[in-house]
From TrEMBL:
Residues 54-79 have a biased composition (Basic and acidic residues). Transmembrane segments: none annotated. Residues 1-24 form the signal peptide. SUPFAM superfamilies: TNF-like (SSF49842). It comes from the Eukaryota. Residues 37-98 are annotated as: Disordered. Keywords: Collagen, Hydroxylation, Secreted, Signal. Residues 107-244 form the C1q domain. It is found in: Secreted. GO terms for cellular component: collagen trimer; extracellular region. SMART domains: C1Q. This is ADIPO protein. It comes from Dromas ardeola.
Length: 245
């Protein structure tokens, strides 16, 4: 029994390579593959690109780097053009009053003026007429006892007189330092009251005197005054000399 089984096994082992060779000869290639003996087909078209993939998640921030060195300062740029003025802003609220300042030094004002009138008929010729009715003489630069104005402030002065003429003719002159400056003559008309007047600008130095007097010889002192008729004489400083300031 054992001898028959061993013989059978040996026979199968000898036949195995032969059957493998026959089987290899009997296998035919797939006619659809490039290795077949058939003519190869045309290549197919490339497929469409696929959809892009989704963005990946942001990575984590890296560690902060060290501070770099400061760069060199650049050149100053050119000045730009002046822009157009902007619109006016709203008006602000009033500020608080400031503190009261210190009192300043007052400027000295030079004053010299007088205005006088006659109380009675004029005196004899060639002497100053004494106007004793005082309208204004605050600085006392006019002396009623002599009828003369005494200059205390050098400068330019204005003088004027307005005389009532009655009973006889009038000739008067305005004097400065014993010299007649202007003359006025008025001829009296019978049964009438007349007026004579004159005015002048004079430059006076300190100590100069100015007055009014009947001029010439004869009966020419018809200067008159009463309770309703005045004869007046006045003068005042217009402006002092520059060196007085």
């Amino acid at each position: 029994m054992r001898g028959s089984a061993g013989f059978l096994l040996c026979s199968l082992l000898l036949l195995a390579p032969r059957c493998t060779e026959v089987a290899a000869q009997d296998v035919q290639p797939d006619p659809k593959t490039p290795c077949a003996n058939w003519m190869g087909g045309a290549p197919g078209y490339p497929g469409h690109n696929g959809l892009p993939g989704r963005d990946g998640k942001d990575g984590k921030d890296g560690a902060k780097g060290e501070k770099g060195e400061e760069g060199l300062q650049g050149h100053k740029g050119d000045q730009g053009e002046i822009g157009a003025p902007g619109p006016e802003g709203p008006r602000g609220f009033p500020g608080y009053p400031g503190q009261k300042g210190e009192k300043g030094e007052g400027a000295f004002v030079y004053r010299s003026a007088f205005s006088v009138g006659l109380k009675e008929r004029a005196p004899h010729p060639n002497v100053p007429i004494r106007f004793s009715k005082i309208f204004y003489n605050e600085q006392s630069h006019y002396d009623a006892s002599t009828g003369k104005f005494l200059c205390s402030i050098p400068g330019t002065y204005y003088f004027a007189y307005h005389l009532t003429v009655y009973l006889t003719d009038v000739k008067v002159s305005l004097y400065k330092k014993d010299k007649a400056v202007i003359f006025t003559y008025d001829q009296f008309q019978t049964n009438n009251v007349d007026q004579a007047s004159g005015s002048v600008l004079l430059h006076l130095s300190s100590g100069d005197e100015v007055w009014l007097q009947v001029y010439g010889e004869g009966d020419n002192n018809g200067v008159y005054a009463d309770n309703i008729n005045d004869s007046t004489f006045m003068g005042f400083l217009l402006y002092p000399d520059p060196e007085v300031h």
